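Example 3.2
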Amino acid sequence: MNEAAIDSAKQRWALVTGASAGIGAEFCRQLAGLNYSLVLVARRSDRLQQLAQKLAAEHAIACRCFSVDLAEADAGFRLEEFLQDEGITISFLVNNAGYGVPGTFNQSDWPTHQASLQVMLNSVCELTWRFLPGMQSSAPAYIVNVASLAGLVPGSARHTLYSATKAFLIKFSQSLAMENLHTGVSVSALCPGFTYSEFHDVTGTRELMNEMSPRMWMTSKDVVAYGITSVMQKKPRIVAVPGRLNRFIALMAKLLPLSVTQVLLQRESRKWRQQDQIEGKDKH
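Structure, written as tokens:
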């Protein structure tokens, strides 16, 4: 089936941010397997093109790539214009792009934090706002906001804004789901724990993560499969936590007194503080 034939058929389109690697790329693979045509969004154009070509050939779907840094204030507007020019209406939105800023809050300058908030918070809200009307008019449609188990447990030292933004995504998803109960748009916050991806390489914490028990980890394939199933089932899981161990941790964080969970997190954060000292010595 050639591209023209694919486009002439009324395809269901999925848009995935942070699509060049990790959980985002896996969402693309699994949604392609469900016969969704794809809009792949990320900064790394070469990776997007490679993945798009592979999935288009394997699944006979249409793929469009849009290379952009979502930290740019006009990124959402430009992306919407691109889709309008292409005549694409989104029916599956995956807000996945995100990263953590290493170190304590004052170790990074404000523009660094501002860019992080733009990607992980503002762009999620903006893209949802821009695409939701079209999704409501072409329901059934689905929104997955990739949050984190970190958003369900008390905040800890370092990566100061990460758990806070993920907690926001969870609350945002809950409210959005309630608002869309009768529109045909299902919404879910996917809250994975430790997942094999490039995330920890980007944040410089790979060495520490390798010291953790393998039982703490899940594959991107399993996380994404759980996320898609959770949002597409008859009664969607609005807060979807993949993995029994992760669900147990989330339950304990909910049931245990805050004073207890804070002590446990303080013990774990000592590893991060020791790493700070080591990195400081290496730099000097």
